[in-house]
Write a structure and sequence with these properties.
Order of helices and strands: HEEEEEEEEEEH
Helix content: 25-40%
Number of strands: 10
Shape: globular
CATH architecture of the largest domain: Sandwich
Strand content: 35-45%
CATH topology of the largest domain: Immunoglobulin-like
Number of helices: 2
Oligomer: single chain
Largest sheet: 10 strands, mixed
Length: 170
């Protein structure tokens, strides 16, 4: 009986150690998975208008909320649907509206929301490969100085997704 007890004791100790180790790994992963969600840079409500005719350019509009306690900066954008994507802003130069690339990016202050909207700062898609069709979506990746890369879907519609839901349009 003594031998039976010692074999079972070793198995019990090994099983307990493996269980505790596995629980510790799960706890660490859950902590790491929840922490960024609680305080993060959150692009949302992204949309682009459907393309008409033979245009090869389009624009993306959205809101970016910084729920962290650190200022950040949107420094780049990219998408597989176009050759280039740039952050741009319209400027009046001698009575002519021109688009200027924001090479310095867009500041996203801590605890605030920044809008990229029609008539203001926006993401310009240059060399769009296929026409953007209402009701579809495409991926857009934002690069932030601190938060790194964040990919979100961009809805193709005539208005922002939040307004489309209110009006019953998709």
């Amino acid at each position: 009986m003594r031998r039976f007890w010692s074999v079972n004791s070793v198995e019990f100790v090994v099983a307990a150690a493996l269980t505790v180790g596995a629980l510790a790994i799960v706890a660490v992963r859950l902590t790491n998975a929840v922490e960024p969600q609680a305080s993060a840079i959150m692009p949302a409500d992204a949309w682009a208008r459907p393309m008409i005719g033979r245009s090869v350019t389009s624009a993306v509009y959205l809101k970016i909320r910084n729920t962290t306690s650190d200022d950040d900066r949107l420094v780049g954008v990219r998408t597989p649907v176009s050759e280039k994507a740039e952050i741009r802003v319209p400027r009046n130069e001698n009575g002519i509206m021109r688009m200027r690339r924001l090479s310095e990016g867009v500041p996203v202050p801590a605890g605030e929301m920044v809008s990229l909207e029609p008539g203001g700062r926006h993401v310009m898609l240059i060399g769009v490969h296929e026409p953007l069709v209402k009701g579809e979506a495409f991926p857009l990746t934002f690069t932030f100085e601190k938060a790194g890369d964040i990919e979100i879907p961009v809805a193709i519609n005539i208005m922002p997704p939040s307004q489309a839901k209110k009006r019953g349009s998709h």
